[in-house]
Structures are given as structure tokens and as C-alpha cells.
From TrEMBL:
Taxonomy, superkingdom: Bacteria
Keyword Lipid biosynthesis among record annotations: no
The Acyl-CoA dehydrogenase C-terminal domain, residue ranges: 257-378
Protein name (database record): Acyl-CoA dehydrogenase family protein
Domain Acyl-CoA dehydrogenase/oxidase N-terminal stretches: 36-101
UniProt KW keywords: Flavoprotein, Oxidoreductase
Pfam families for this protein: Acyl-CoA_dh_2 (PF08028), Acyl-CoA_dh_M (PF02770), Acyl-CoA_dh_N (PF02771)
Amino acid sequence: MTPTADLPTEGPTVAESAADGAAAVLAGLPRVVDLLAARAEEHDRDATFPYQGIEALHESGLLTLTVGQRYGGPGGTLTDTVKVLAGLGRGDASVAVLAAFTLLAHAEQARTGNWPAAWYRRLLAESRRGPALVNALRAEPGGAGGLPATVARRNGANWSLSGRKTFCAGAEALAWLAVWARTDEPVPRTGLFLVRGDSPGIEVDPVWDQLGLRASASHDVQLDGVEVAADAVVGLAEPDGRRADEERIGAAWHDLALCAVSLGVARSALDWLVRFLRQRTPANLTEPLATLPRYRSALGEMASSLIGAEELVAGLAAGIDRGDPAAVDRAGAVQLLANRAATAVVQQAVALTGNPGLSRRHPLERYLRDVLTGRMHFPPEEAVLEDVCRSALG
């Protein structure tokens, strides 16, 4: 991918060329998945950052798949995105999560053009030279609700940014941070302040020590008087409690992209279970476990559930790509169902295999930890169910 322009281009030839570009990038996915899988256990065990895997994403073009056509990119769709992230989730869920946030940032820019042109051109230039990870930092130690505690104060013509963000995936390797903050004005405004990852005043606090996604480096980030240019701000406005259409679309992209990672993890768990059942012959049997009706029935149930979840996510992604507003509204419910299915498949795989499934010698216990930890990227189930209930009641 060589993003060289920021001027709109039109016509079927351009669209066809972009589709061909996305297809060419997707063709390299299997090789990258294999590479990630080969190092996943090591990075999980040592909680080390997967620099080699991120470099492979960059070299294959997968990290910039969603750069818009008007910027010279492939213009990858949500359908493309969930396919890629499900694949990466099969290799290493931590790398998939890191890729997801960068792909979502480029996709949002393709839809809205929110980043000021000069700053996005800089990001694209860095993306040509090497991996340029991006993440929007919103979560704070105090939890969600109300105005952010992170404050932007006027410093001459620019802004001075101070605060602490938590659960910052890729913290130690981010090229750009889009930091959600409020101004210190009498009537506060909120927006995303664009910060270069190596800016003075940024300190990464290595507190990430979770059960799963251990290589995602989702540490805390402390900002102390970080200078932000006056024009390096996205969406600075007074909060009014309304959720614009673009915010709903962005949330739908986020939900389907991240639950695709979980589905990829579940698919790897199912693949491992199949191999285990084919090879495992207990001492009191003469045939492998795969020949026993109980195991065959359970495997059929799990495979059916996973296929259904995969098709549900892919179908809804295609609907959102077509611009169907009903599909956007259903994304929360779909991610909930898909994540439940993914979690249930991995848990059932562990139950069927017993002690071997929980051994660190096998990857199944890692899949379980990763799929459980992935829940942090979604709203609580009760919040999603309340939204669906409210919609159902009209």
C-alpha cells in the first residue's frame, strides 16, 4: 500500500482497482497467521511485545488495509476487516487486537475525514516507512461516565494535555495516540487530541498483567503537560448527550471488528480440539475419542455454533458496508451473541479435553484466557441488553 494522495478519486476503474488492492493484501493473510502462531506462546509466556508480528502486518499491507481510496489505499471494507481480524485472532489474539485499533482508525478517517489533512498525511508517510500503530485512548482509572478527567489547557496558541489513560493497547509502541480529553474552558468541550507517541511528557506505566492478551501491552499512559498543536484536535465540541450517526457506525465497526478476533480464537480452539480427539486414544479404548458418539455430538454442536456466529458477523458486516441502518443498529446484539458463542466453544473444548486442555504445554488454555480477557473491549452485557430491550419496546 502506497498512500500518496488525499484528493478524492471517482469512477468504476478506481473502485475496481481498490478492490483488487484489498484482495492482494488479503492473499498474504495465511502466511502472516502462521508466523504469528509460531511466536504466540512465547510472547504470552513472557508478556513481551510482538514487534516481529507487527512488522509482518506492515510488510504484508494488512496494517493499512482500511486506508481510504482517496488517500491511495486499498479502501478495505468492514467485511474485509472482520475477515482479517478473525484470521489474525487464529494466530495471536494480542496482535489481532493491536491491528484492530489501527484498522479502525484508518477506516474512520476514510468515512469521515476527521483528522486534519496535514496530520493524517504525516501518519500515512510514517505508515509507508514502517508499522505505525494508532489507538484512541478513552478509558480512565475512574471508569466511564461524564466528562473525561484528562484535561487540555491553553498554552499560548497550542494545548497542554495532562491526565492518565488506562487499558491502552499497544502503549509502548504506539506511533499516534488520539487522547479523549476535555478543555478547561468555563463550558468544557471534549475531543480527541492527536499526540505523537514519542512526545515529551508521555510516560508508559507497565501495569498490564492480565490473564490473557498478555502481549498486547495494554498499559496505562500518563500525560504530563504534553504539548498538542492547536489544529491537532478531532471533533472538539460541547457534549450534548446525542449519539450522531457516525458514532453509531463507528461503534458498529468496533464491535464487529473486536468480536471477529474472539471468533478467530475460538476457531483455533476448535481446530486444536479436532486434532486432539483424532489422536487421543485412552488406555481403556481401542479407537480415538473422535469415534465416540458423545464427543462427536459435542463437536458437532460446537462447530455449528461457531459457524452460525461467523456467518452472523460476516452477514451484518456486509449489511453495514451496503449502508443498511438496521444493520448498524443490530451490531451490539450481534457482538454479544458472537462473543458468547466464541467463549462457549473454547470453554467446552477445555471441558472435553480435561487436564490436557489446561496444560501450559498446549495452546488451549491460552485461547481460554484470551477469549475471556477480550470481554474488556465491549460494554457490559446488561448495557447491551438494555439497548436491545429499549429498541424492542419501541
